[in-house]
Amino acid sequence: MLVVNSLAKSYTHDKQSLQAVSFKAAPGTVTAVIGPSGAGKTTLLRSLNQLISDDAGQVLLDDQDLRQLNKRALQRVRRNIGMIFQNYNLIEPLTVLENVLHGCLGAKSMISGMLSLYTTAEREEALALIDEMGLSDFAYTACRQLSGGQKQRVGIARALMQHPKMLLCDEPIASLDPKSATLVMQTLRQLADAKQLIVIVNLHQVEMARDYADHVIALNQGQLVFDGTPDALSDTQIQAIYA
């Protein structure tokens, strides 16, 4: 279970990027975070695995407050948190398999990581995830040759190599065509259900939130202005959120 209590963050003295944001997200659910550009969505996501430090509040993952952990303990917890990025964050000249295998680097020694010393079991798992993403024909293809939608699915497979409890997805479909965007959202939905993952996804596309999320939260100027189910999100509320 993810529990966020009164999370606050300011980059400057006169503007708060997050203002006492609180919400919960359970395993097996997709939580969509919506709101206009600059609302605080990316700041929130980066706060959830402490890529940035917050000013106040709690981020509890299975009752463990990430804000109170030392560097080593936080690194261990981050192994349970997969990240999926808008710009894919792949090493483009490397193959799909090589990029997916990078997902287990956090659990390997520095020497093993530097020398790409992966076990047979790790390679088999990576290939199975690539197949699960519908990319088995591209396992040995350089990522620079893939479409945007294919690259994003490589990013998802890489995140799954960590055996995460939670996936944090920062605008994962913003750069994709509608067909690819739908496939990525279907994949995230299926993963939440099948693997009982907590999935938090930042979205600009409200209809995608309505179609694939169990839970929607909305931010505007750093404030939580909606917290509920997609069915409870009316057109009037959407207009207010994006005002």
TrEMBL record:
<dbReference type="InterPro" id="IPR027417">
    <property type="entry name" value="P-loop_NTPase"/>
</dbReference>
<dbReference type="InterPro" id="IPR012693">
    <property type="entry name" value="ABC_transpr_PhnC"/>
</dbReference>
<keyword id="KW-0918">Phosphonate transport</keyword>
<dbReference type="InterPro" id="IPR003593">
    <property type="entry name" value="AAA+_ATPase"/>
</dbReference>
<protein>
    <submittedName>
        <fullName>Phosphonate ABC transporter ATP-binding protein</fullName>
    </submittedName>
</protein>
<keyword id="KW-0472">Membrane</keyword>
<keyword id="KW-0813">Transport</keyword>
<keyword id="KW-0547">Nucleotide-binding</keyword>
<dbReference type="Pfam" id="PF00005">
    <property type="entry name" value="ABC_tran"/>
</dbReference>
<dbReference type="GO" id="GO:0016887">
    <property type="term" value="F:ATP hydrolysis activity"/>
</dbReference>
<dbReference type="InterPro" id="IPR003439">
    <property type="entry name" value="ABC_transporter-like_ATP-bd"/>
</dbReference>
<feature type="domain" description="ABC transporter">
    <location>
        <begin position="2"/>
        <end position="243"/>
    </location>
</feature>
<dbReference type="GO" id="GO:0016020">
    <property type="term" value="C:membrane"/>
</dbReference>
<dbReference type="InterPro" id="IPR017871">
    <property type="entry name" value="ABC_transporter-like_CS"/>
</dbReference>
<dbReference type="GO" id="GO:0015416">
    <property type="term" value="F:ABC-type phosphonate transporter activity"/>
</dbReference>
<dbReference type="InterPro" id="IPR050086">
    <property type="entry name" value="MetN_ABC_transporter-like"/>
</dbReference>
<dbReference type="GO" id="GO:0005524">
    <property type="term" value="F:ATP binding"/>
</dbReference>
<keyword id="KW-0067">ATP-binding</keyword>
<keyword id="KW-1278">Translocase</keyword>
<keyword id="KW-1003">Cell membrane</keyword>
